[in-house]
Amino acid sequence: MRFDHTSQGFPPAGRPAAMSDGDKTNTPDSPNVGVVVKTRPRTRKPAMYKVLMLNDDYTPMEFVVHVLERFFQKSRDEATRIMLHVHKRGVGVCGAYTYEVAETKVTQVMDLARQNQHPLQCTIEKD
Ligand code: TYC
Known about the structure:
By secondary structure, this protein is an alpha+beta fold. Helices cover 34% and strands 15% of the residues. It is built from 3 helices and 3 strands; from the N terminus they run βααβαβ. α1 packs across α2.
């Protein structure tokens, strides 16, 4: 059988693969040396968007509390606190999320409100 490089024993024992004959970048005239440069990790925190809930005269308080529990993972006490804040002040924050998540929450709230014929409105505001 002829020598088959896909079988065991290639590259030949005693020569590390990284320094095989094919490495043309590390030569006596042009050795692999250079300045060590520290790189700053190029990651950015995603922009956050607040979901705001608006007051109206018709949506039942209990429905708003339900929405805050279901879509914003609030406890009943926290949901009630936020609902009463919106009722008294006109607007309140449900939570802060990345853009797509915030957009999805607004759609979910508005869809459920429309299905139940409530005029409840919410919007997105950059954090
Ligand atoms: N103002 C409403 C009422 O008196 C209750 C309400 C609270 C509606 C918060 C909307 O985002 C809202 N039934």
